[in-house]
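dumping this here before i forget
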Amino acid sequence: MILEGIKVLDLSRILAGPLCTQYLGDLGAEVIKVEHPDSGDDTRAWPPFIGEEGTVFLSANRNKRSIAVDLKSEEGKEIIRKLVKQSHVVVESFATGVTNRLGVDYETLKEINPQIIYCSISGYGRTGPNSLLPGYDNALQAYGGIMSLTGAKGGPPIRAGFSPIDQTTGIHAVTGILAALLHYNQTGEGQYLEVSLLETAVGFLGYQAQNYWATQKVPERMGTGYGTLCPYQVFESADGHILIAVGNDTIWRRFCPAVGLEDFMDDSRFKTNPDRVRNFNETVEIVQEVIKTRSTQEWLEVLKQAKVPCAPVNTIDQVVEDPQVKYREMILQYTHPKLGDLKGIAYPVSFQNVKREVKKHPPLIGEHTEEILQEIGYTSSQINDMTNEGIVYLNNESQKLS
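structure:
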């Protein structure tokens, strides 16, 4: 595997951090997830559930082992120090200031392992006037301007139907860690890197911010439309909806005869994309009038034949059963010792001669506490004492399942 031999200590929780470390695990890194003995990762308790496990947790925690440790205890802190000594990467997503109180901040861990790569994930960044604010995906969609761009024209701001800020922050963290590992291989030096939900949100604004600087016009919500291309949005068909993407004038000249709009192809109002953008509403109305006359499937066949980019508006059940998605092996299948056969969404990068697979199921809380403690030198007697004192949690159920 790509990252075989790399050891990652995962102190993160919820989604951005766990998704980052899951992807590192997918790439072959050995990931140890540290959880609180009483409750574990918050998402374990988020419905809906498969058995007793929250589906959000299951979606972001494969290819890891779990150790349950009380980080507020001195013995727990010593366990972390021993794990840091043998790790290449630490990922954390505590609220600003908590790592210092727990003694797991970068400066402290750097003293233990000078070559450590330390990735800090936060809501608004670790410095600045908002650094102490809690970070949640929907809050950053609002604060970062994403909601102002999302929704129907003239309608209220809308939250995206998934968690793009959290998930992309996790991907950015993977990118940063891989760059830091390359730097480490070249120089032997560790690294401190930060990723925040805010910077991810602002990063999404790219061309929209550039448009604003160029025109001094604040971008508005346009539904599924796109302010610089037209027609380039979802249209209502006779039985549903279809996305049509006329991305340039060459496509426009194929699109018009395909749908029976030959008379509009060279019309001065619509001949070029700038013309169509200037006459945006009129263009959309003309196209909509013809598209609603036939079914989605009929239009898909017509437009594909004419080489006009188009797509059905699929629902989740349709996506996970789609032949192309299956062919690209984006749906993972694996067996969980307690929950049975499960599925998951794969890391969306494929490598030649590297199989996408789940080598470790999403762990039960504390499933690997005992074996990890033994690996770093603790005796059975010491482990029993710490268990009795509530410093660590051993999942007895995992022993029955193994």
